[in-house]
Amino acid sequence: MATGLGIDIGAQWIKVVQVRCSGQQITVTGALKLPREIGDASPEGAGGDQISVPPNLGQELARAGLKRSGTLGITGRGMVLKYLTTPPMPPDKLRRLIDMQLGERMVPGRKEEGAPSVTYDYRLLNVPTGLSGDLVIMAAVAKNDFLHGAFNALKATGVSVRQTAPSAFGLAQAYLRTQKVPKDETVVLVDVGHESLEVAILAEEQIYFARSGPGGGKKFTDALDKLLNLGAKETESFKHNRARLQPAGTKLESRQDLQFQNALKEGADGIASAIRSSVMFCRTQAKLPKLDYQRVFLCGGGARLAGLREYLEEKAKRPVQVLDLYTGLDLRKLDAQSAQCFEGEIPDMAVALGLAVVDADPAAYCLRLVPEALSKKRVFWGKTVFAAAAVVIALASLVPPYVNAEKSLKEAATAREEFEHRVEDARLLKKQFKKEVEDTVGVTQRYAYYARLPRPGRVLLDLFTHLRADAPAGVTFVYLGPDEGEGAYGNQKGMSERVFDEPLQSVVVRGYYDTDRVKDYNESIKSLFTKLRAIPGVRRPESDPFFNDGEMALEPGFKGFQFRVHFADPHRPYAPDTEPPAPAAPAAPAKQGKSGKQAQAPAAPANRSGT
Fold first, then answer.
1. At what angle do helices 144-155 and 372-379 cross, to 10 degrees?
2. Which residue, 101, 289, 498, 534, has fewest beta-carbon neighbours within 10 Å?
């Protein structure tokens, strides 16, 4: 029963999975998903020339109860996957030939002057080659500078990389270990990341193709942001909650829907094109002119766009389905926080899961890349040093017969007595420590209980104060409270039917602004949102781009708006303000109408929230 750890460094998230392998049974014993907010990191994640990771990665792994040694997935410019075709030859000659072609060495085992420093690994493909009997080889080649950078970057955070492997092989192993592979069926696996695609082609259990390419969910976000101009975070929320890709030929009712579809189809067509080009490339390079596929499996966070599976199914003219990891895994050992990493219909932990299998099972089909210098160093410390230590110990064992035996026994007895005293002291300290921990937990629970009592009113009061103090000139708020029912956020229960036994999770803020005084509403509202996020207890504000101000009966020169403020988890305490709130801003003067008279602002709707 072996344990393995897989590390998948993406453009947005670092995903780590720990598994225990027993035959074909895979038990997930831990998982971690960290945001990759590290400044000027390589946009291709682990595929750039350098790998950057958060400095606290090792601490987070230890806090989650995970190992700090495993297999790292790599992709992109630092690593190349290629095919070689050679006539049949003995294994030793084949190794020398590959050493010359991939390692660029004229003499095996010796690095030529000026030759690039690379590391490679290869596997023979079990493919039908006809009467010629040529050998088809799949190989991975990586620059040593890139590999050493990856090893050192994780070592600086307290994480040891045992080996690196192309991320696409992790995707393939996740499929092989969690699915019942049909007989005589060839499938295409696609993991849609944030900025890249991992593609693998398998015929039953034979891996014919594994490669990474550009693409991913960021293309959908960028295309939508050009239309909405909401910023990356708000556009991501819109993509996951509202956007939907319609199949080709669907009749669209509005021009706006047509614009959204055109924007989304660009990214979806890129995924369909990657599938077609991968199949064509595999046919040529693997010498499989009749290669075809019967099914496509999708996974990855970028594949969660509604309607993407149906659209690709129509483009490919073949079934497209989600890669279901959950039925083939034992997740019962996970705690609540780790189990959240495997929530959702479409999994995004497939690559990390497959890399963990590769780390636990040396026989798993994969290309493994470890620099030669590092391998020799590990062999030295793993064998030579310990062998030398064993010799020293053996020689030292010859000395005691020449030493006074009685004196040695007395010293040993004294040392043992001292050790037993220390063990007893340690037991008492442990018992005292456990008692103090129990007392501390009880006090913390009481503090948390009393801290929850005044929270809802405090958040609403702080929000009301900041809205008055930070509102841009020319902006007037007319409503602050729960959603009234009908609106841009969907049909909900009317106010008379709402039950408020629990604190509010969000409130609606509605108002209007003077278009003559507020020249750039988007910039003004973004500045206000930045200030609102600093309020303790506020999680995020978000605009409603589809709000219709026609029912507000505004005078000419005024325009209505609406946005929603989401609160943090009401069951978690938050720190109070360190400074008192700013004083309320003076009321804005009334707008002069076109005739010179003061324009009367429209009457605000009745505030049913009591704010």
1. 50
2. 289
Q: Are 279 and 188 in contact (CB under 8 A)?
A: yes
Provide the domain limits for residue 420: 406-453
Task: Enter the pTM of the model.
Answer: 0.61
Among residues 105, 98, 101, 53, the alpha carbon closest in space to that of 74 is found at 53
d(CA 424, CA 426): 5
CB 257: neighbour CB atoms within 10 A? 14
Q: Do 524 and 389 sit in the same domain of this protein?
A: no
User: Per-residue pLDDT tens for 524-564?
Assistant: 888 999 999 999 888 889 998 888 888 888 889 999 999 99
Adjacent-strand bridge partners of 30: 18
Torsion of CA 226, 231, 232, 234, to 10 degrees: -110
pLDDT at 399: 60
What values do phi and psi take at 141, rounded to 5?
Answer: -125, 130
310 with 188, same domain: the answer is yes
Span 252-291, pLDDT tens digits: 777 777 888 888 888 899 999 999 999 999 999 888 888 9
One-letter amino acid for residue 478 of the chain: V
Integer Cα distance of 523 and 214 in angstroms: 33
pLDDT recorded at residue 611: 34
